[in-house]
Amino acid sequence: MLTFDPENRMTAYGSVMTAGYNGDGLRAWKQTSSGRTYFLYDGVVPVVELDAAGLIISTNTFGAAGLISRRSDGRSAFYTFDSEGNVSQRLDDRGDALSTHLFNAHGEVLGDSLNDPFGYKGQFGYYSDNETGLQLLTHRYYDPSRGRFLTRDPISYGGGINLYSYVANNAINSIDPFGLTRLKFYISTGTLVVITNEGYRYYIRATSGKGDATNDPRRTRGSIHRIDTGGSVLH
Hints:
Layout: E1 2-4, E2 10-13, E3 17-21, E4 27-32, E5 35-42, E6 45-50, E7 56-63, E8 66-72, E9 75-81, E10 87-91, E11 97-100, E12 102-103, E13 109-110, E14 127-129, E15 134-137, E16 140-143, E17 148-149, E18 174-175, E19 183-188, E20 191-195, E21 201-208, E22 220-227
Antiparallel strand pairs: 1-2, 2-3, 3-4, 4-5, 5-6, 6-7, 7-8, 8-9, 9-10, 10-11, 12-13, 14-15, 15-16, 16-17, 18-19, 19-20, 20-21, 21-22
């Protein structure tokens, strides 16, 4: 049984998980059989996780092109992604593969299970609650087994006739990291290109910092350019 608050945010998934939210509508904590986890954000990106005593248990690092690494239990994992932004491999700090993963178009795990919260579309910050099988896309929960959101589109029919649709069923070419709007994307020669519904294009390219090893994902910075529908650089 699912429970929601007056603002249509899920507060309980049966007896498996409960959750609370901050004033920005972001999930502030979740409670499972493993205990309570608190989340701290950089904007809307979850970067630090704390236990009930306020001790840091995990940190997540993001760069210009998305997720880079996660440190938990004193160990770091670095990520490589497939063409759709799904986690393909988790690597240790020596570059050795810790695990290899595969997902179908809507996010169901194929093959070995994944205990890490970042898997399907992990490059874009999709956060998986392994206790429930759901994914938190910032403002709405998504069920990969059904390929749809649990709650109605907050802009109602402005987002289409199906109020629970996920990226208009075009999961190969689209993402919705905020649970609010579908974004088209593609990757070209190392550049992540995101296209908004208004037609703006964001070109996001990770580049090596001066003196850094170009093959070390921990030492990358990025440049972001916004291009209008006529091709002019806005910033």
